[in-house]
Specification:
The structure holds 2 protein chains of 2 kinds. Chain A is mainly alpha-helical. Helices cover 71% and strands 0% of the residues of chain A. The longest helix of chain A is centred in the middle third of the chain and has 25 residues. Chain A is globular, with a radius of gyration of 21 Å. The termini of chain A are far apart. By secondary structure, chain B is mainly alpha-helical. The chains are: A mainly alpha, B mainly alpha. At the A-B interface, α4, α6 and α7 of A face α3, α4 and α6 of B.
Amino acid sequence: MNLAAAHPGFLSPTGVEVAFVLVGLATLGAALLTVTTRQLVHAALWLVVALGGLAVEYLLLTAEFIAWVQVLIYVGSVVVLLLFGLMLTKAPIGRSPDADSGNRWVALAVAVAAAGTLVWVVVDAFRTTWIDLGGPAQGSTEVTGAILFRHWVLPFEALSVLLLAALVGAIVLSKRTGRER
Amino acid sequence: MNAYAPILVLGGLGAGFAIFSVVMASLTGPKRYNRAKLDAYECGIEPTPQPAGGGRFPIKYYLTAMLFIVFDIEIVFLYPWAVTFDALGLFGLVEMLLFVLTVFVAYAYVWRRGGLEWD
């Protein structure tokens, strides 16, 4: 009895854990619909549901800052960028019969392999680590900031170079010089 | 998590009001349709079957969205930095200055190449 109380088990889930699993299933369903729907705009909108579900998962894991970054960056900006892309390429309204790819089985294999690798890495890395969801937030902005700016300095600085490359790429692709025009 | 309970209640109230309005309007309102009522509403302009230019948008919009997303990502890092600034000290200041400086190079490049001009 004491052992069960000391070590969190899978057989007696708390309310937050149940909510986590339910939101996870909804996110998975939305993600599957994103890749299977034949209507491109619907795919973008299902992506909003999937990314929003991920934000709720972060929130349930007490990572409030990450959750709102997910909403701001992914739901707010990346999906808008995707919709702009659809408008720029004159995507048809309604079904796209050519939205299917001949590489679907290869894509499925790559997706399953990537998912398997990620699940294995995360489970292996955090095997004995448990988050106390009832206690003080362990993923708060302070904790995130301290870990990011103390331990992950190099990736953080490398990110600025990545942003620079993204901007230069966007300009080069979309702006023609005066002579070319 | 409990801080989000009022937001959930507010969202529930909003959704309830929206559903109530739509359902009540369809149940109690008179239904006398005519051609003008069923037209798509376009701010008083005659609706056209094909938008101008075949519905394609200039690439300028994409560039603006791309610029927004890059600086959005930059700004979002200032929040955890500001919260932990006291604990980080000079190290954190130099770190963020280097980061901002690199993105500022991108800003200068965009400016010089005319990425901030609309026409």
